[in-house]
Write a structure and sequence with these properties.
With 651 residues, this protein is mostly helical. It has a 3-stranded antiparallel sheet, with helices on one face. The longest helix is centred in the N-terminal third of the chain and has 54 residues. The termini are far apart.
Length: 651
């Protein structure tokens, strides 16, 4: 065996077990950091780098890597074990759990499917309307339930619509082919007639037209002269002299007829290829619309995605450490995130229209849609799917009521512009987690059907019967996504370790040279960087690693931390270019309409557009909402110092 063969075999085997090799070698290769620089900062940096490598390479499941601080922080002397464990479940985690439980109740009663299909039916079945029809419900639903569940629900509906388009094109092609064949038969018989008339020396003109009797789709015969009046004609039945004469036989060449048939066949194949390509293109557009709308919708509400909660937890902790009210509540996030999400959705819609349909759909007076249509078939398919759901149920109505109630409780707890119901209790006691768990508990007791007892019981029911609750523990324990909860906890623990060890402050000091750059430029660079890094690794992992660094950078540069954290958290959801970037991207990619080059070329432009939108947001309405141009505790310190100076002067 040659040396080259041996080396090839070794390399091939190593490639098979590359994750195991990275898992073993990574902690060994970076071990000199805590050994040569024995300090809490270096020890925390060791954990930070190791988790970053594991998250990027995905040598372990992401939630499993998030558990590493529970082991490494106590062993390396960064934090006590009980303090690390307490960071995994916070009020932010409770809000997330409450939102997920509400989402499970919506999914169990199929309310999300009814909303999505109803919007599609109302908006119509034209290509432009379908694009809007898929984007709006996907965007709306992803605010309240997980992006993954929303995409998994909407993409089969999109597949059904595309299949209806394909069927409509097939029927149209078959119909056109039949009509062309019938017309070709008539023309051939005309030639026979003329040649026969010439050979038999008829007294009337050769050019006299033929009367064609044919049967239409309704089974009735009719007559015409060299033309079809029924577009559903399927075959020519008889060809006869309009004057009742008979014509003899004559020899004629069929070469020209064969050429015409060959040309018609070639034309049909070209048309079929064009139609198939248009349908594939339309399928790519709908697939990307579902994935992108889901990603954008998650930024509108605090519970829309895990990265929002990570930012809120980190920012609120900074404010609470300075004895200030937390800046990011459900209400304040909604006021900032919803306009931002709407603008991004409009940009995504416009970009997809421009890429896949050109500029004409924007000019409704001259639009000429070239996408194959089957409006009736699509509408019928959507209505058929909707009818499968039956009439709206008591459980669906209950889910709507509880969702509205939960949002209302979140919104009215501390709206900011007026005292909320939280002011009726001890200050700081009622948080967003309280209504989230309250509604969750009620869902386990509220019936999913009208209870059959007392006055609710029909005459046919002789005795009361039990009905299932909106939720049961079996559903929650099997379907609740525990992975994102552990990722949240790992991010919280990592941020706390960086702060306690002093690593955040050390990093901030090293980044002091960036003080010569305007704050808006720093925020823009960070937003772009986060947006593109999340294309190759988990957005939750990226934000978990970035938040301690951004906090330290803001503190050293004298910038409001929220000015850097908020756009970074938003940008973590702007992963539009690769299938591995987000679960919605992976789901739509699996349906086969997309190639990586399709997603990357379209997603690159949307990445940049959304980055510009969030940069605009934090420098306009975000600046006004959160006072991002000043540091709140610095202003309080200056005010306290001025008051003290004035008091001592008077004394």
């Amino acid at each position: 065996m040659s040396v080259r063969t041996v080396l090839f075999t070794i390399i091939r085997d190593l490639c098979v077990y590359w994750k195991t090799i990275v898992f073993i070698l990574s902690p060994i290769l970076i071990l000199p950091l805590p050994l040569l620089l024995p300090s809490p900062e270096a020890n925390c940096g060791y954990v930070l780098i190791l988790m970053a490598l594991y998250w990027i390479a995905e040598v372990l499941p992401l939630p499993v890597t998030a558990l590493m601080p529970l082991v490494l922080f106590p062993l390396l002397g960064v934090m006590p074990g009980k303090d690390v464990a307490s960071t995994y479940i916070t009020d932010t985690s409770i809000v997330f759990i409450g939102g997920l439980i509400m989402a499970l109740a919506i999914e169990k009663c199929n309310l999300h499917k009814r909303i999505g299909l109803r919007i599609l039916i109302l908006l119509g079945s034209g290509p432009t309307r379908l694009l809007i029809g898929f984007m709006l419900p996907t965007w709306f639903l992803s605010m309240w339930i997980s992006n993954t569940a929303t995409t998994a629900m909407m993409i089969p509906v999109a597949e059904s619509v595309i299949n209806q388009l394909r069927e409509g094109v097939r029927l149209k092609r078959t119909k056109n082919h039949t009509e062309k064949s019938a017309i070709a038969t008539v023309e051939e018989e005309n030639k026979k007639y003329k040649m026969a008339v010439g050979s038999c020396n008829h007294a009337y003109a050769v050019d006299d037209p033929l009367e064609i009797t044919y049967f239409g789709g309704d089974g009735e015969s009719s007559s015409t002269r060299n033309s079809f009046t029924d577009s559903t004609a399927v075959s020519a039945e008889i060809v006869k002299d309009s004057r009742g004469g008979k014509y003899g036989t004559a020899e004629f060449s069929t070469e020209e007829s064969e050429k015409d048939e060959e040309k018609a066949k070639t034309d049909d194949e070209v048309d079929e290829k064009k139609d198939n390509e248009k349908i594939k293109k339309f399928g790519r557009m709908l697939s990307l619309a579902v994935a992108y709308s889901s990603n954008v919708g998650g930024t509108a509400t605090l519970t829309g995605t895990a990265t929002n909660l990570l930012v809120a937890n980190a920012a609120n902790k900074i404010w609470e450490d300075h004895d200030l009210d937390p800046p990011l509540t459900y209400t304040t996030w909604l006021f900032f995130g919803l306009p931002h999400s709407v603008i991004c959705l409009v940009f995504v819609w416009a970009w997809l229209q421009l890429i896949f349909m050109g500029w004409r759909p924007f000019c409704f007076c001259c639009v000429k849609d070239e996408t194959p249509h089957n409006d009736e078939g699509i509408k019928h398919a959507l209505i058929e799917e909707y009818d499968k759901l039956g009439s709206i149920t008591f459980g669906e109505v209950s889910a709507i009521v509880f969702l509205v109630l939960l949002v209302a409780l979140w919104f009215s707890r501390d709206p900011g512009f007026a005292p909320g119901y939280a002011s009726l209790f001890k200050e700081g006691y009622v948080t967003d987690g309280v209504p989230a768990i309250l509604i969750s508990i009620i869902l386990f007791a509220w019936p999913s059907q009208i209870p059959k007892w007392m006055c609710f019981r029909s005459k046919d029911d002789k005795r009361a019967t039990r009905v299932p609750a909106m939720l049961d523990w079996q559903t929650v324990s099997t379907k609740l996504p525990w992975g994102p909860l552990l990722l949240l906890g790992g991010g919280f623990a990592l941020a706390e370790g960086c702060e306690v060890s002093g690593l955040s402050q050390l990093i901030g000091e090293q980044l002091a040279a960036l003080g010569v750059i305007p704050p808006w430029a720093i925020a823009l660079v960070i937003t772009i960087m986060v947006s593109f890094i999340t294309e190759i690794t988990s957005n939750t992992a990226v934000i978990s690693l970035m938040l301690p660094i951004l906090e330290a950078m803001a503190d050293d540069l004298g910038i409001n931390p929220l000015y850097l954290m908020l756009p970074a958290g938003m940008a973590a959801s702007y992963a539009f270019m690769l299938p591995i970037a987000t679960p919605p991207n992976a789901i739509v990619f699996s349906y086969g309409y997309l190639k990586i080059i399709n997603m990357a070329s379209v997603g690159f432009g949307i990445n940049l557009l959304c980055v510009l939108v969030v940069t605009l947001g934090i420098n306009t309405w975000g600046m006004a909402m959160f006072n991002l141009d000043e540091i709140p505790w610095a202003a309080i310190s200056n005010s306290t110092a001025s008051t003290y100076y004035l008091a001592t002067t008077i004394t």
